[in-house]
Protein 1
Amino acid sequence: DTAVSQTPKYLVTQMGNDKSIKCEQNLGHDTMYWYKQDSKKFLKIMFSYNNKELIINETVPNRFSPKSPDKAHLNLHINSLELGDSAVYFCASSQVPGGAYEQYFGPGTRLTVT
Amino acid sequence: GIQVEQSPPDLILQEGANSTLRCNFSDSVNNLQWFHQNPWGQLINLFYIPSGTKQNGRLSATTVATERYSLLYISSSQTTDSGVYFCAVEFAFGNEKLTFGTGTRLTIIP
């Protein structure tokens, strides 16, 4: 059973397009996250949701819009894609916000903008 | 500036060797976790260790929160240990998020 799943695994698209990444967790966790890993492998949090409510927005451009339809799902929509958006995007979940419980990561979505 | 710094940045070892990875953080922390990112990109949680010492098989970790560092020990390395190791901290100034370190890339040669 996959704990945290993401689709698609790979996404290749052109500048200016709009795309979405979906995430689902079956761990019963209350908190979900989106992280971005750049080409140098640096991992940075983008958003955090707790019980479907946005609690962290790390000065991400407005072109990125997360949505949490329920506690088990967190989607990421990106408008007007730019070259600099190329990265691996990870979804994660935990029982509560922050680091008090283990965070579990999805397999990642490798986004390439050409 | 860098808030969570890991050393060394790269480490190449022969199979069977032992290694110590270090994580220094710039401020008081409430929580600390270690992760392994395997060569296929999957991030696996290794330890939740805000203080003290834990062991899991060939891996163990120690956090000395008062001195602002954590160590990850890998004994009798195997090729499957290759990948990037990250520590991640939740700073005590109450931001409810994990800040990831710079990572250590470990390569185990058969």
Note: Chain A is about 0% helix and 55% strand.
Protein 2
Amino acid sequence: GQQVMQIPQYQHVQEGEDFTTYCNSSTTLSNIQWYKQRPGGHPVFLIQLVKSGEVKKQKRLTFQFGEAKKNSSLHITATQTTDVGTYFCAGHSGGSNYKLTFGKGTLLTVNP
Amino acid sequence: DAMVIQNPRYQVTQFGKPVTLSCSQTLNHNVMYWYQQKSSQAPKLLFHYYDKDFNNEADTPDNFQSRRPNTSFCFLDIRSPGLGDTAMYLCATSRGSAANTEAFFGQGTRLTVV
């Protein structure tokens, strides 16, 4: 079955440093989504990438979708304490099956 | 305005005592998902519906059942909860179109089996 791997599992940075998390799927994806989950909260949608090689930016966040539509990354420039949380990628298999499989997530902590 | 509502927020149940978790949505979305999330782990898909079409994950225990009586409501039934079923249960919805598969999550039900 479809598997979505994500690294690193944990990342601790000083405020102002950059952060990147990487996601890799065992199968080609229809699209990939990124979610953020604050401690004690529920996952909140950040973005969806659909096209091969797509790059999208949201302020300090940059999302990329690989050419083969099997890998993705999220990069945060100049982290802030408000960036703390777990970042999950989630792969969508497409077609008439709307299965959404989550990666294991990367827990980001930021030291002020 | 809450769009995906889960009840209850917290549930304590005894080992082996059936429990039902509920989810309702005001988004009129076709797809509804149930995820189990244990502490410090990723959400694990249990099953999902596209309208009334039910999709069960191969590794979801038979102990877990679901019902979707209409578009707005979906239920998770755990017939004989074990201690290992202690977790956060997350309901999510999505529109179910190729162009937009964004999932909207409820706040979850934190289930404790004692």
Note: Chain A touches chain B at residues 1, 30-31, 33, 35, 41-45, 48, 50, 88, 90, 92, 94, 96-105, 107 (CB under 8 Å).
